[in-house]
C-alpha cells in the first residue's frame, strides 16, 4: 500500500476543519452541544484529527489510526451493516444520511480510543443484520 500524503494542519486548515465539522454535525442532525463536545475530543486527539482533515481534503480514508486492530474503515463497515438493518426497519433518520454515518464513525473512533472493549465486542459479535421483529 502506497504511503498517503501527510496533511499539514495550519491555522487555515484547522478553521476549515472546524467549519466542516460544524456543518457535518448540522447535516447529521446533531445539536450544538454534540458539536462542541465532538470538536473538543477530535482536536485533543492529534492522530484522529489528522484522519478527519485527510478525509476533508481527499474524501478518502487515511486509515492510520488502529485501536486493537480496528480503524475508521472498520467502523464504517460495521455501521453500514447496522445502517442496512435500519433501512430494513424503515427508520428515516438513517435512510439517506451519509453525513451522520461518517460523523458517527469518527465519533466512535474517538470513543473507542478511550474505551475500546465495547466496540471490539460489538464488531466481533454483532452483524447488524439481526434485530427484533426481522423474522
Topology (elements, then pairings):
Blueprint lengths: L10 H18 L3 H13 L1 H13 L13 H17 L3 H4 L2 H17 L1 H10 L10
Helix pairs in contact: 1-2, 1-6, 4-6, 6-7
The whole-angstrom Rg is 15 Å
Shape: globular
Give the overall average pLDDT: 84
Strand content: under 5%
H/I helix tally: 7
**Sheet bearing the most strands, described?**
none
> Domains counted in the coordinates: how many?
1
Order of helices and strands: HHHHHHH
Question: What structural class should be given to the helix and strand makeup?
Answer: mainly alpha
Helix content estimate? 55-70%
Give me the count of strands.
0
Low-confidence regions: 87-92, 131-135
Kindly, what is the distance between the CA atoms of the first and last residues, rounded to a whole number of angstroms?
42 Å
Offer a few descriptive terms.
mainly alpha, 7 helices, globular, single chain, disordered C terminus, 135 residues
Describe the structure.
- This protein has helices at residues 11-28, 32-44, 46-58, 72-88, 92-95, 98-114, 116-125.
- It has one domain.
- The chain is built from 7 helices and no strands.
- 26% of the residues are buried.
- With 135 residues, it is mainly α.
Provide a concise account of the structure shown.
With 135 residues, the chain is mostly helical. It has helices at residues 11-28, 32-44, 46-58, 72-88, 92-95, 98-114, 116-125. It has one domain.
